[in-house]
Amino acid sequence: MYLKELTSWVRLDARGNKEEIDSQFYTDKEPLAFHVQEECGEKEYSIIYPRPHPKTLAVLENHTNAIEMYKHYLPESLSLILSFK
Known about the structure:
The protein has helices at 54-62, 66-73; strands at residues 2-3, 8-9. By secondary structure, it is mainly alpha-helical. Strands 1-2 form a two-stranded antiparallel ribbon. The model is unreliable at 80-85 (pLDDT under 50).
């Protein structure tokens, strides 16, 4: 989310609170509701893109099945789109 008052982007963890999960919002730090599990192939990217890459947008606009998009159409890595400005 872009905070005009801070002139910066802040990442949000939308997974919310549950038992034993305390997800808070701060402007100076980013506490995640869950830790990244690298052993499961999860990654945390420190880059915040102000706009989605056009190829990613095209996939989202042209498909309705989230599982099929995830399996076959969305990029496997953000390194594929780092050149987007």
